[in-house]
Amino acid sequence: MKILIATHNQSKLKLYKSIFKDLNYTFYGLSDLNVTYEVEENGTTPEENAIRKAKEYAKISNMLTIADDTGLFIDKFPKKIQPKNHVKRINGTVLDDESLIKYYSDLFKQYGDSLDGYWHKSIAISYNGEIKIYNYKVHKIFVSKINSRRNKGFPLDSVSITPEYNKYTVDLTEEENKLLIEKENKEMFNWLTAELTKVKKEKGVFIACPISKYLTSDGIEKDFEIFIKEVLELCKKYTSNVFLALEREEFGKNKMWGDTCTPYDFKKMQETEYLIAIPEDSMGVAVELGWASAMNKEILLILDKKYKTSELVKYIHTIISGIKTEIDTSENGYKNEKEKVLNLIEEFLKGKYE
Q: What is the distance, to the nearest Å, from the Cα of residue 222 to the centroid of all Cα atoms in its chain?
């Protein structure tokens, strides 16, 4: 499953990859997708900013998107100088790491050298227009004395103490940091894992195959119907969200016209994640492959040597995530190739849903 982490911060992206390294997720940062647009973080709370970023970057990427935002609250700070969710923006200017460390060190010294505080963290998931949100707090002690070491991407680790180890956060060993992250974020990670697992099962499959050429006076050609129904049932073993235009049209008994089915099929393409395409020589399937590539879907492309295929269709797997394979139905149609096709589809789906 492909997931966008709405950040340019490579340290944060690395953290997600590390946490979920044993699961079948592929994480991307904004830089990986060459996204330079910056969502305006003008919410009054971390939650508002996390939701805004998740929604907008999900629209841009057509991917499940995770966005977070963090607010800093220091116990002895008066209300007017509480950082809240503008930790790096001071008096309208975004400070670099060294300037930020110096600014907060001076404030901590002014209000007592060692101050209790906490990070208020909000994490939002955006998928198919739906938003899920989780909030939690991480306690720290903030000090005026600056540690000489730096943790790239997390500058205030050089002026904060982690109570569990009574050490500067920047001085934590890799093992200590790993254990601390697991402890501080355990409930959030459990929530996130549960939500991603739900989404994984909801991520649907769009089956693209020819229709018109197989239509008969009372339905569709029987051997093809048997074959495509087996493909359909196999996909339904892994997710209930499976779209096949032939099923919608009752396997040839309820044909829809293009002005109706085109917007309907396009919407279904948006709502699914994986495309299983058996294009043969269908221009309709070629269009659906174009939709899928524009929406950054993952494709299992099953080409048939029996048919002449556009070079753009033949090599579409070179520009998006996908797998291409070839079959040959020249002699006995799908009778001889059915088992091979079903095995390919099962292998593809196992990699996505298990």
A: 39
